[in-house]
Amino acid sequence: MLSLAVHLLLIDDDAELCALLGEFLKREVSTVDCEHEGNRGLERAGQPGVDLVVLDVRCLPGHRRFRDLRRLRTHSKVPVIMLNRRGEMWTASSASKSAPTIYLAKPFNPRELAARIRAILRRYEARPAAPAGRIEVNGIVLDPANREVYSGGKAH
């Protein structure tokens, strides 16, 4: 198992499913929090410290579902795995404006969810920050903060 230092927020109105998935997913990530009310869950999803959200879209009010997700996207880049019941009449294209990353139909195998979590975390893995100061090598100066390159004292 991977056991990453990741805070996962699981938003699903099925408390029993949340408890079972929470225990299973603690093998993959360090912290799993559950929220059973969709709007409260989306508020928490946008908070600093949440690294990944697993969201059952049926927790959100029907006609406002994707609008609420788009609102989350205006202030957060947190990856979202959207869960939905198999055969539900919504399409990925109608949800794509809200920029969720992965869709998974219920019922699903928890191992499949864990594999998708690993995949999404690899994709969104934090990149090291660029050095703050200038770097000089063989007469070439790189200024990452200003995205400039100098050679022979001239900017290129």
Can you tell me about this structure?
This protein is of the alpha/beta class and 156 residues long. 31% of the residues lie in helices and 28% in strands. The protein contains 5 helices and 9 strands; from the N terminus they run βαβαβαβαβαββββ. The strands form 2 sheets. It has a 5-stranded parallel sheet with strand order 2-1-3-4-5. Strands 6-7-8-9 form a 4-stranded antiparallel sheet, with no helix packed on it. It is elongated.
Number of E-type strands: 9
**What percentage of the residues does DSSP assign to strands (E)?**
25-35%
How confident overall, as mean pLDDT? 80
Biggest sheet details: 5 strands, parallel
Helix-strand sequence = EHEHEHEHEHEEEE
Give the name of the CATH superfamily of the largest domain. Answer: Response regulator
Helix content: 25-40%
Shape: elongated
Count the domains: 2
Q: Any guess at the CATH architecture of the largest domain?
A: 3-Layer(aba) Sandwich
| Unreliable parts | 92-99
CATH class of the largest domain: Alpha Beta
Radius of gyration over C-alpha positions, nearest whole angstrom: 20 Å
**How do the strands line up in the largest sheet?**
2-1-3-4-5
- Structure classification: alpha/beta
N-C termini distance: 47 Å
**CATH fold-level assignment of the largest domain:** Rossmann fold
Annotation field: number of helices: 5
Brief overview:
With 156 residues, this protein is of the alpha/beta class. The chain has helices spanning 15-25, 38-45, 65-75, 92-95, 110-123; strands spanning 4-11, 29-35, 52-56, 80-85, 102-106, 135-137, 140-143, 148-151, 154-155.
